[in-house]
Amino acid sequence: MRVAAVVARGPVRDRILSDRGAESMYVSDVLQAAALDVVTQRGWHAHLRHLGRQLRARRDLLVESLAEHVPDAQLDHVPRGGLHLWVRLPEGTDAERLTRDCEAEGVLIAPGTEWFPAEPAGAYVRLNYSGPAPERFPDGARVIAAALARQAGAV
Q1: Are 59 and 97 found together in one domain?
Q2: Is position 136 within any domain?
Q3: Helix, strand, coil shares of the chain as percentages rounded to 5?
Q4: In sequence order, which residues have a C-beta less than 8 Å from that of residue 128 and are 6 or more positions away?
Q5: In this structure, are 62 and 30 located in the same domain?
Q6: Which pTM value belongs to this model?
Q7: Dist. CA 117–CA 104, nearest whole Å
Q8: Rg (the chain; Cα; Å)
Q9: Number of folded domains in the chain?
Q10: What is the domain-level CATH number for residue 103?
Q11: Predicted confidence (pLDDT) per residue in 25-82, tens digit
Q12: DSSP state of 130
């Protein structure tokens, strides 16, 4: 049974809040045991190797797609791991508008401003290559290129 709400005050409220705070700082024993079971299975390392190969292939396909279809975008660093590429957009690009324009065409990208603790050094987008349908990366790159061209007034 789950309790949806508790109304309490005084020492009872303080104790409940203290317990909830302590509980939220730690992963439950059951979840820890389940995670340990997964990562100690014989197939875990093979799974990681396979996943790494898949992610590298997806990353490389996205890098190639950007180079072919969005040559004005700069990719200063190709990560050895991870799930994203950081792409610097041409000077004067409105990354927020680009994000909206691409979304209207069915391509979801993330403006980089959300991940900078201060003012960004330029317009960036973060592109995720871990999702489904990597065969659509070239189409997505074409959508980004068309949106950039519209923003620049070339189309």
Answers
A1: yes
A2: yes
A3: 55, 10, 35
A4: 83, 84, 110
A5: no
A6: 0.75
A7: 28
A8: 22
A9: 2
A10: 3.90.1150.10
A11: 777 788 889 999 999 999 999 999 999 999 999 999 999 999 999 999 999 999 999 9
A12: S
